[in-house]
């Protein structure tokens, strides 16, 4: 499968724990985006990388959230000290410009 | 700030009907517009991409148009089927690769 891959697909964690998600973009796509989608809402932009450089971060990305793309290929999104309000679908997209391709998402449930 | 509105928010039609989903945006300085579908609990699947220099794109039973001057795009679905039931999102890419999601139209096609 050469699409955008996200792991894990589902994650259940206790409040206060740290979680890390991984996104493998389509090979050679230089742009990578993270979005969060809560139930019944459209996706909300979190952050954007061009190669390894994080060019933009939403104000939604509090200091408990950090994203990296160390070699300009895969990216990780870490949430520290998870809260129930972090429960959502986390979507990753990659783009060679102009088209964006989305992964299937990681569904996080904080209990 | 780009604002993207989709009308209607929800739509229920009998199988076989032709239908039109609308997307309006406030800033015409866009690079491209994409239509996606999202099935419950799943990621986004790209349907059609229209670049800013294009006026329409077609794929199978789907036809998308773009009128930048009026800030509008439409997605036309011919001969709707129950499998078309999903949420449809229009997504705009503007300056600095800023991606803005529409509010979504939830479609239900009744057999």
Walkthrough of the structure:
The complex is a heterodimer of chains A (111) and B (111). Helices cover 0% and strands 50% of the residues of chain A. Chain A has no helices and eleven strands. Chain A has strands spanning 5-7, 10-13, 19-24, 31-37, 44-50, 53-57, 65-68, 75-79, 88-95, 101-102, 106-110. In chain A, the strands form two sheets. In chain A, strands 2, 4, 5, 6, 9, 10 and 11 form a seven-stranded mixed beta sheet that branches. Chain A has a four-stranded antiparallel beta sheet with strand order 1-3-8-7, with no helix packed on it. In chain A, strand 7 (65-68) and strand 8 form a beta hairpin. Chain B is mainly β and 111 residues long. In chain B, strands 2, 4, 5, 9, 10 and 11 form a six-stranded mixed beta sheet that branches. In chain B, strand 7 (62-67) and strand 8 form a beta hairpin. The model of chain B has no long low-confidence stretch (mean pLDDT 90). The A-B interface holds A 6, 31, 33, 42-45, 48, 50, 56, 89, 91, 93, 95, 97-105, 107 and B 31-32, 34, 36, 41-46, 49, 51, 89, 91, 93, 96-99, 101-104.
């Amino acid at each position: 499968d050469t699409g955008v891959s996200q792991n894990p697909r589902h994650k259940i964690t206790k409040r206060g724990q740290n979680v890390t998600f991984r996104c493998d973009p389509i090979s050679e796509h230089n742009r990578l985006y993270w979005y969060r989608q809560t139930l019944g809402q459209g996706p909300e932009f979190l952050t954007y990388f061009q190669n390894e450089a994080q060019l933009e971060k939403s104000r939604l990305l509090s200091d408990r959230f950090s994203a990296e793309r160390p070699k300009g290929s895969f990216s990780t999104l870490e949430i520290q000290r998870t809260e129930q309000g972090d429960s959502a679908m986390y979507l990753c997209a990659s783009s060679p410009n102009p088209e964006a391709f989305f992964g299937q998402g990681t569904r996080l449930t904080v209990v | 700030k780009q604002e993207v509105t989709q009308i209607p928010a929800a739509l229920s039609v009998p199988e076989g009907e032709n239908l039109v989903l609308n997307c309006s945006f406030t800033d015409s300085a866009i690079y491209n517009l994409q239509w996606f579908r999202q099935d419950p609990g799943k990621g986004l699947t790209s349907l059609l991409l229209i670049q800013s220099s294009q006026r329409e794109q077609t794929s199978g039973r789907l036809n998308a148009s773009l009128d930048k001057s009026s800030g509008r795009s439409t997605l036309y679905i011919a001969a709707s089927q129950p499998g078309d039931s999903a949420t449809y999102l229009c997504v705009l890419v503007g300056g600095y690769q800023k991606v803005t999601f529409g509010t979504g139209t939830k479609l239900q096609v009744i057999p």
